[in-house]
Amino acid sequence: MIEFLKQLTDPQSIIQYGGLALLLFVVFAETGLLIGFFLPGDSLIFISGMFCVSKPELLGVNILVLILLLSAAAILGNMVGYWFGKKVGPPLFNRKDSFIFKKRYLEVTREFYTKNGGKTLILGRFLPIIRTFAPILAGVIKIDFKKFMVYNVLGAFAWIGLLASIGYYLGTYLWVQENVEYIVIGLIVITIFPIISAFKKKNKENDPTTNG
Fold first, then answer.
1. How far apart are CA 48 and CA 160, in angstroms?
2. Does 104 score more than 80 pLDDT?
3. Is the pTM of this model over 0.85?
4. Is 88 exposed, middle or buried, given 0-12, 13-18 or 19+ CB atoms closer than 10 A?
């Protein structure tokens, strides 16, 4: 089980272990299920695009089909997240923290949503944790479903299309193929930095020693 969980957090292992089916499930889970916030969405999409060039036998589809399938998985994931948030409602903010759920994740997403409105469903696609909780929050506050779906579809194609296309283009270079681990680390640092900054800001606001 531990080894399986390790594979679920390693983009290359996900594709090599489960192929296209596991790839689609991981993208779906990260965008629609609470348990998916720790999954490596950005780097996974990038590497899947790269593998369309360097190791096409692993996925068995071309880049256009890959983008369509991954976008569909991301769209469905957000729909599930929206449905969950709408069903649970505002009491979700009072839910106790657990291994899977942390209330601060939802609070940071709410602040991001307050600042960016519906665009959170597009911009949030590129940010870990935010992309998991944004559709849930949209359901909690009962945003109009048609409006939600517009942002949902646009965000999915922007996120998947951009990262997969960059991976596909860079995958033609041997240096990229041989140093993909460093690129993955770079993606993680770039995408996680805004989240860390938001958490620090939130903790500072909640710290009575800094507000008094």
1. 10
2. no
3. no
4. middle
- Please state the rounded mean pLDDT for residues 52-58: 84
Residue 39: what are its φ and ψ, rounded to 5°?
Answer: -80, 150
- Highest average pLDDT, of 85-99, 127-141, 180-194, comes from 127-141
DSSP state of 141: T
6-29 burial, b at 16+ Cβ within 10 Å, e below that, comes to ebbebbbbbbeeeebebbbbbbbb
* Mean pLDDT computed over every residue of the chain: 78
- Distance (Å) of CA 206 to CA 111, 201, 202: 14, 9, 6
The C-alpha atoms of residue 95 and residue 208 are separated, in whole angstroms, by 23
Tokens 């283009």 locate to 169
Secondary structure letter of residue 59 according to DSSP = T
Q: CA–CA separation, 183 vs 160, rounded Å?
A: 17
Burial of 151-185, coded b for 16+ CB within 10 Å and e otherwise, reads: bbbebbbebbbbbbbbbbebbeeeebeeebeebbe
Strands (E), the chain: none
Rounded average pLDDT over 174-189: 71
